[in-house]
Amino acid sequence: MSKFKKRKGGGSPGISTASLPDIVFMLLFFFMVVTVMKNEDLMVDVSVPKADQLRKMEDRSLVSYLYIGKPLPQFQSEYGDAPQLQLNDKFSSIDRISYFIQAEKDALPEDKKDKMIASLRVDGDVTMGFVTDVKTELRKAGQLKVNYAAIHGEVGK
Amino acid sequence: MRLRKKKERVSTEINAGSMADIAFLLLIFFLVTTTINPEKGIAVKLPPWSDEEVDPTQLNTRNVFSVLINFNNELSVRKEPAELKDLRADAKEFIMNPTGREDLSESPDKAIISLKNDRGTKYEMYLQVYNELKGAYNELWDEEAARRFPGKKYEDLKRDQKKAIQKKIPLVISEAEPVDAQGTGK
């Protein structure tokens, strides 16, 4: 009995926080690894449609992005609210695509040049006329591997 | 004596109590900047550019599954109005023609899916239709894979096995130049 009493009298020791930094560092490293720093600011509003036949793109370094959508509100006074094409970090006209593709190809190592994928990140509300023109330019530029960006979801709802 | 005392104090350990705070700060920074963005999409291979357009309507109409989307995002399949939800099943039936019907494709490798849209069609609708057509082929490939190699999915097969299936059921989605019914031009 006396033994029990003694323990109670000692009061509860606080939980040791010595391992807290380790836990936090573990989380920190996880996020550092999964983080992809966005190197370009989106100037167009893109919410990609839903689809369910998606493939993951294995190598991000092979992917070049073409954004199509309405300009964001702060750019609308200058560019209007008709859909625009964004290449790298500025609005571009459609005939710049072949230069863009060439520049992106030049940046890749020799053995990966023909594996490049052009990812079209197109807003769901853009009309096909614009998208078809972009596709035609891509075909003319010889960039035939294309990816229609989409998010996973039920179709037809 | 005083000097000695000071020296002893300097050699005490650095307090690591603030380490957690620093780590938390960095952690929160990375939490905020992280975008686990969906790097997924429908992979397509565009046909090479040529000035003369292939017109699928010139081919034997039995083998052509024409899908049209107009500027109101309405669907028509083989000149009949259709619903998006039936498209995948219809396309599968057309390609395989399991009951040997006269008006469906002669064999899977002769089947051509012709997709035509209007310049005013919404991209969302187009992509959903494309998704359904691709889905039809993916399901057929899976079925064929299960038939040839029981218990396996198309994705798990080796390269030459995939090739063999693709030879039997080749994916042919031909996209015609869009029409411009509203006269929107560019």
Query: Gyration radius of chain A, to the nearest Å?
Result: 26 Å
Q: Report the total helices of chain B.
A: 5
Oligomer: heterodimer
Shape, principal axes of CA atoms of chain A: elongated
Structural class of chain B: alpha/beta
The helicity of chain B comes to: 25-40%
CATH topology of the domain at 44-152 in chain A: Nucleotidyltransferase, domain 5
Supply the number of helical segments of chain A: 5
Low-confidence stretches of chain B: none
Mean pLDDT of chain A: 83
Please provide a written account of the structure:
The complex is a heterodimer of chains A (157) and B (186). With 157 residues, chain A is an alpha/beta fold. Chain A has five helices and nine strands, in the order ααββββαββαβαββ. Chain A has helices spanning 2-9, 20-34, 73-79, 97-106, 128-140; strands spanning 44-45, 50-51, 55-56, 63-71, 84-87, 90-92, 117-122, 145-149, 151-152. In chain A, strands 1, 4, 5, 6, 7 and 8 form a six-stranded mixed sheet that branches. Chain A starts with a helix and ends in a 5-residue tail after the last strand. The relative contact order of chain A is 0.18. Chain B has 186 residues and is α/β, with parallel strands linked by helices. Chain B is 39% helix and 15% strand. Chain B has a five-stranded mixed sheet with strand order 4-3-2-5-6, covered by helices on one side. In chain B, helix 3 packs across helix 4 (123-148). Chain B is elongated, with a radius of gyration of 29 Å. In chain B, 25% of the residues are buried. At the A-B interface, helix 2, strand 2, strand 3, strand 7 and helix 5 of A face helix 2, strand 1 and helix 4 of B. Strand 3 (55-56) of chain A pairs antiparallel with strand 1 (40-45) of chain B.
Describe this protein with a few key phrases:
heterodimer; A: 157 residues; alpha/beta; Nucleotidyltransferase, domain 5; six-stranded mixed beta sheet; two-stranded parallel ribbon; 9 strands; elongated; B: 186 residues; five-stranded mixed beta sheet; 5 helices; 6 strands; 39% helix
